[in-house]
Structure formats: structure tokens, C-alpha cells
Amino acid sequence: MAREQLERLRQKMKEEGIGVYVIPSSDCHDSEYVCGHYRVREYITGFTGSAGTAAVSLNDAGLWTDGRYFIQAERELAGSGVRLYRMGEPGVPSLEEWVEAQLESGASLGFDGRTMGAARAKRLAGLAGKKGGKLCTDRDLAGEIWDGRPPIPPSPAWVLEERWSGESTESKLARIRESMRGLGADMHVLSSLCDIAWILNLRGGDIPCVPVTLSFLTITREECIWYVRPEACGPEVDRYLESCGVKRKEYEEIYMDLGTLDLDSVQSGSRAGNSPVPETGACSPEAGFTVLLNEREVNYQLLSAVPETVRILDRPNPSEQMKAVKNETELRNLKEAHRKESLAFIRFMRWVKEQVGREEITELSAAEYLDERRREQGNYLGQSFDPICAYGANAAMMHYSATREHHEALRPEGFLLVDAGGHYLEGTTDTTRTFALGPLSMEQKRMFTAVCRGCLRLSEAVFLYGCTGYSLDILCREPLWKLGMDYRCGTGHGVGYLLNVHEGPNAFRWKLREGDTPAVLEPGMVTTDEPGVYVEGAYGIRTENELVCVENGQNEYGRFLGFEPLTWVPIDLDAVLPEEMEPGEREALNAYHRRVYQEMSSWLNEEERAWLQKYTREV
């Protein structure tokens, strides 16, 4: 099927005089997950993963994705006419290198400027200029050939009350305006859907598994405008916006509004009051009207709409750091959300270990059973991502997803890896456990134990304030590195509060990605701890807890921090080799299991408590 799409796209390219056409995975907001309407790259290539960029020339086509998707992409691209380029692997050309090699002199380079991030688009624009060709960004060529393209869902937005958010929109806007004053910015432009949802205390349903609304936001020192489709706003939302002093405009109007920014008129209005001199590194008052935005998040068309007379201040959104540090209300709620999620996982763990081989269980029915246990909890809103319920060799694909057409039946042997999470009004969860369903090889147990050791070592870390996730990642990987093993992804990511399950800026990883600035770990940040082993064609193992960064004392050497787990689910002792653990690691495992029983036993019946006691015993 993909070959047919490629040929139709190439015909369009010939008609428009385009030599290379680039297709990102994102929507107009650089979202990680997108609704069906924006899955253009998937439509053209057949690759269903959430991360990857395709590029098509008149004679060749490629897809660039990271290590999480190598195995999946190789299978899905087979026979499609699209080559897989494994990002970060030795000898693999980057997307930009491939485009430069494919683009003939004088040929045009095309992409949809609304769905291409501004930072990458500027690099691609440089390539077009270098080859003496034009840049075509005003056409969605791939979308134009998509018959039966799904529409954007008409999902209503809704208000997240302060008992869940812990801070009013007025307070958040005041904090952002304070940051703007410090930077010398007159206007802040946001396209990140999670930042907008956090600031406005609004949630929606425009993206599967991410409760946000497709929209843009501008903030000046006097007003705030939300650009959104009218069908997303009912009377309650409109009343709420009015009470917060937020105006509403049509979604597409932001391009026109930015394009008509007049330097003289806006400067006289926004600079009124003689604002204080900005901090070092910010724009000076003489710089003229200044717009703060993040070029890694806004799309190219949005950036291009800003007149050249307006100064661009390319910085991370102030709200990125603000929402990453959870307030007391959010942390209290998150503990309750994880109690609910842990209860669902414990009941799932007991069921699957006791019933495999006795009744027919598939990857699909197992995932549904877990979600049924979630739905028994109050305030459950839905899954925070498509669950990964992977048996045997399927678990070697980090982001494997079972389908009606392709799924495995579970057998009483080997491993079952389950990575799943939910959205509750109390917050978002993300948990992974790997279960022994029967006999395991010594190699499997050794690898499981190394993963367990890494997870525990990171969660037990004590460190001085100023450390980043790059400082601590080795604690998690070292047990695997000593075995000559590794995993091709980060060790952990931040988690949003009833937002995207993957949130920055905090993360655990040892490789700096292009443009990354390591984020200092702050008390209140929630980050996952999820080492793994993935052996292609054989098995996969991952253990994941969510950790909240906490204070751990202060003395003459400085301010010490540590972590407190939010996740309370047993690590399967049937797969652990205690003799391969250091004494401190064994005590950490025993201490964690004591807390699991302490936190969860009162929510279980007598039979469940007896079962939990077995799987939280000391080793």
C-alpha cells in the first residue's frame, strides 16, 4: 500500500517542481502523539510509531527514527519502498545529509510549514538555499493525496478545578508575566498544547491519550488570547475564560494577528510604564518589540508570520519549568493516583501469574483486564498511552502494540512485559513490570536481576542540588554495562499532571541530544526510572517506577536531594537472582517491598494480602 502512496506523492512533487519532500510526525504543535488527521507520515510510509521523519525524493525514500523503534520500523517498512535509517548508529546519514545528497541543483525542497518545527525547518531552508532551489512550505502535498483523511475530532474542552490543579490560571499568568519582564519580552507565543492546558487549567480530547485541545496562546503584559476552534468551547468554558481575563479567538487567526504586529503601535502600548531593565542575557529596552517563543516547539509558518521588524527571543517557555515542578496539591493527588494504579497492577499481576495456562489469555485480553481494574477506581479518565502488553519476542520492540490482526497468546513460560498508564483527576501514571509466566533461562534471570538492580540504584540516589539526569544515569546503566548490555533510549522522562505522559525538561539519560540543555533536578519534579534489556527475537525486560524528587537535608557541603517512589507494585521475585545483588541492593529491594505491602495491603482483601505477602517477602 505504501508504494502506491509514494508514487502518488511523487506525481504531485513533479507537478509542483519539488525534488525532495519531507514529512514529520507532528501536528501544528509539535505534539508527540497526534490525532488521526495528522498521521500523514504513517499514511505515506506505513510506519505506525510515534517518532520518525520521512523524506521522499523522485527516486528514493527514507524514514529516520530512534532506537525505540528499530525493530518495529524494519518490520513495518518491509516492501514499502522506504528505507530505514537508524538514527544515532555509526555510518547512518542524518536526515539533513540525505536531503542535501538527494536534492539536485536548482530543485525545490518542500514540506508543510504548519507541521514542521521552526528550528528544523530553518536548517532545511539552508539546504535549499545552498542548492539554489526554492523552499515550498505552503502545501500539504502528502495530505492532498489522502483519500478519506480523518477529520479533527470535535472534542469539548473542560475546566480542571483548582482542587486538582493546585493553582489558579491568574496566578500562573502572573508568574509567566514576571518571567517575561525579566527577559524583556512584550509578548509570549505558545503552541505547546500541554503548556497551554497547564496555564489555562483546561483539558480536552483532541489527541488520543493526551487530554489537550488544539490551540495557540499569546500572552502580553495586559492580555491573554486563546486561539481555538469554536466547537471546543461550551458556555462553561467561555464563562471560565472570562473570569480569568482570557479572550478567545478562532484557531487560524493567530497567523494573521502575528503578521500584523506593528512595531510602533505595539511598542508604545506594551512598553508603557517604563518596565525595568531586563536581567543579563535578556533583550534591552532599546531592542524594540520582542516576542518570546521556543523555536523547537512552534511551527515554521507561525515563526514566519512574525514581521522581521519584531525581535524574536528564542527561549524555552517559562511554563515548561513551572509545570515540571509539581505543587503540594498536585503531589498529594499524584500519590492517590498511583495508589489506584498500583492497586490495578497488583490485581493484574496476581491474575496473570495464576491464570496463564489455565484460561486463554492474549496480549489484547491481558491489556483489557488491566484497564478494567483501572475502571474500578474513581475519577479514572482513560489510558495515558496505548498499552504495551508484549509477550516473548514481542517485548524486544520497546514500543510494541498488539492489534486485532497481530497478537500473541500467553503461555506458562518466559516473560510478559506490560508498560501501561492511566489518567485520573488526581494525575497521570506510567508503570512497567515484567512478569515471569513460567520457567526462565539463567540468562533471562541474570538480565532481569541487572535491570532490577539498576532501577533500585537510581531510586536510592542521594545527590547535591545542581545535579541533572545526565549526572545520575550511570547509576542505572552500570549493572547492564558490566554485562556488555545497554538499551537504546533514555532511562527516564518527566511526567505531566493530567497531560502528556512524556514531559520535559527533566529526564535521565547519558547522551545529550542536539540542542539539549540538561535540566537541574528540582524538588517536586516527577521522573520515571525505567532501565531495560531488549534481545531481538527473544525477549524484553523493563522495570519502571515513577520517582518524585525530594529534599534530603542540608549541611556545610550543600543541599542534598533524593527520590521517593510513587509506584508501589512488586518486582517479580520469581525472576530475581538475589546472589547476583550487592548487599545494599538486596536491602533496597526488601525495603521497597516492605513499603509496597505497607502502602497497598489495606486496600486488598484477605486472599490478595496473602498473595502480596508472598511477592514482597525478603530475599
List the helices and strands and how they pair.
Elements: H1 2-16, E1 18-23, H2 40-45, E2 53-57, E3 61-65, H3 70-77, E4 83-86, H4 95-102, E5 108-110, H5 118-130, E6 135-136, H6 141-144, E7 158-159, H7 162-165, H8 169-183, E8 187-190, H9 193-200, E9 202-203, E10 215-220, E11 224-228, H10 235-244, E12 246-249, H11 253-259, H12 263-270, E13 290-293, H13 300-305, E14 311-314, H14 318-324, H15 328-355, H16 363-375, E15 380-383, E16 388-391, E17 415-420, E18 422-424, E19 427-428, E20 431-436, H17 442-459, E21 463-464, H18 469-481, E22 492-494, E23 503-508, E24 526-529, E25 532-535, E26 539-542, E27 545-555, E28 558-565, H19 583-600, H20 606-615
Parallel strand pairs: 1-5, 3-4, 5-6, 8-13, 11-12, 13-14
Antiparallel strand pairs: 1-2, 2-3, 7-9, 8-10, 10-11, 15-18, 16-17, 17-20, 18-19, 21-28, 22-23, 24-27, 25-26, 27-28
Helix pairs in contact: 15-16, 17-18
Give keywords.
single chain; 619 residues; alpha+beta; Creatine Amidinohydrolase, Chain A, domain 1; Creatine Amidinohydrolase; six-stranded mixed beta sheet; 20 helices; 28 strands; 20% strand
What does this structure look like?
The structure is a single chain. By secondary structure, the protein is α+β, with helices and mostly antiparallel strands. It has 3 domains: 2-144, Creatine Amidinohydrolase, Chain A, domain 1, CATH 3.40.350; 158-316, Creatinase/prolidase N-terminal domain (Creatine Amidinohydrolase, Chain A, domain 1); 325-615, Alpha-Beta Complex (Creatine Amidinohydrolase). It is built from 20 helices and 28 strands. The strands form 8 sheets. It has a 6-stranded mixed sheet, with helices on both faces. Strands 12-11-10-8-13-14 form a 6-stranded mixed sheet. A hairpin with a 3-residue loop joins strand 10 and strand 11 (224-228). Helix 15 crosses helix 16 (363-375) and helix 17 (442-459) runs antiparallel to helix 18. The termini are far apart. The model is unreliable at 264-281 (pLDDT under 50).
